[in-house]
Amino acid sequence: MQSKKVSLIVPVYNTKKYLRRCLESAVSQTYRNMEIICVDDGSTDGSGEIVDEFAARDSRVIAIHQKNSGESNARNNGLKISSGDYIGFMDCDDWIEPDMYECLAGALEQADADMAIAGFYREFEEAGKKRIEVQNEKAVVPTAFDGQQLLRYLYERDSYRAFAYIWDKLYKREIVCRTSGEMIFFDESIKLGGDVLYLAQCALNVKRAVYVEKSFYHYLQRTGSGCHMPDLARKQDNIRAYKIVSREFEECNVEPLVMDYIKRIIVYHSSYAAELAYKQQNRSMLKEFQELMHKYEKEYRRLNENRPDWIARFEKILQYKV
């Protein structure tokens, strides 16, 4: 049965090279009860015309065109018009296996869960680099698990790599809403990391979740994409998103272990940002990121005590000076 409707939200911006593959994979889903909301965020390369082409041939595709306002704004405008019982997200340069939403919707209904999570593949543009199926290092509970366990999976990143992103999941509509009934929206002030905060806020609403031991989502690694740009302000924003998550989780009395995992993630991102600041000879930014590394040094060392190479790198970066 496919009585429940899936709203798939796809923000689109200047990815003409990849967009047909993306949208073809969406309209080819074996789960047919869907609306595919494509929000063209002011594309200038012909991506908007491709969205219109798919909307003309498939009534389930909804085309929205807007002036360039950022990915989070595009996702929010998609959320505002969504009417599905379930919500999914896809990036416009990625693609999905034909049975992704049939499997995830089935898992949600069978487990009476709020969120279904699956695995994904890393895909590469560079010649000679082969697809990698992302694997969890530790086993995941094979049956439905509670919200506390979900948070452990989400933030113990090196052990549960398949849990980190928003797009390899299907969400029951109720969990993307606040207790007041208003929808949770992406923070548009965060240029990189809006999905980090959004996933955390939705996860807090989850009572039951289920993991599907199969990969459906193809995540394309592009050197020109936003998350790979050598931009210190964007790195700073991503760290700010985790700091907000930490603050909100503390207010919700999330267990100390999860809080420590988040602090470790903050140090991880701060260390790479510090390396970039050192390379760019930006003294103030280097100091800011090193201070964050010092702030959570105790948690980082404890959670990485079996990774001497990580600790050695950490100590080396703390010695950088500009």
Please supply descriptive tags for the structure shown above.
globular, Spore Coat Polysaccharide Biosynthesis Protein SpsA, Chain A, alpha/beta, 322 residues
Domains counted in the coordinates: how many? 2
Number of strands: 10
> What gap, in angstroms, lies between the N and C termini?
62 Å
User: Ranges with pLDDT <50 over ≥5 residues?
Assistant: none
Give, in order, the helices and strands. Answer: EHEHEHEEHEEEHEHEHHHHH
Largest sheet: 10 strands, mixed
| Multimeric status of the protein | single chain
Secondary-structure topology with pairs:
Layout: E1 6-12, H1 16-27, E2 34-41, H2 47-57, E3 61-66, H3 71-81, E4 86-89, E5 95-96, H4 100-111, E6 115-124, E7 132-133, E8 145-146, H5 147-155, E9 169-172, H6 194-203, E10 208-221, H7 232-251, H8 256-279, H9 283-295, H10 297-303, H11 308-318
Parallel strand pairs: 1-2, 1-4, 2-3, 6-10
Antiparallel strand pairs: 4-9, 5-10, 6-7, 6-9, 8-10
Helix pairs in contact: 1-2, 6-7, 7-8, 8-9, 8-10
Task: Note down, in words, how this protein is organized.
A hairpin with a 7-residue loop joins strand 6 and strand 7. The protein is built from eleven helices and ten strands. By secondary structure, the protein is of the alpha/beta class. It has two domains: 6-227, Alpha-Beta Complex (Spore Coat Polysaccharide Biosynthesis Protein SpsA, Chain A); 230-318, no CATH class. It has helices at 16-27, 47-57, 71-81, 100-111, 147-155, 194-203, 232-251, 256-279, 283-295, 297-303, 308-318, and strands at 6-12, 34-41, 61-66, 86-89, 95-96, 115-124, 132-133, 145-146, 169-172, 208-221. Strands 1, 2, 3, 4, 5, 6, 7, 8, 9 and 10 form a ten-stranded mixed beta sheet that branches. It is globular, with a radius of gyration of 20 Å. Helices cover 43% and strands 18% of the residues.
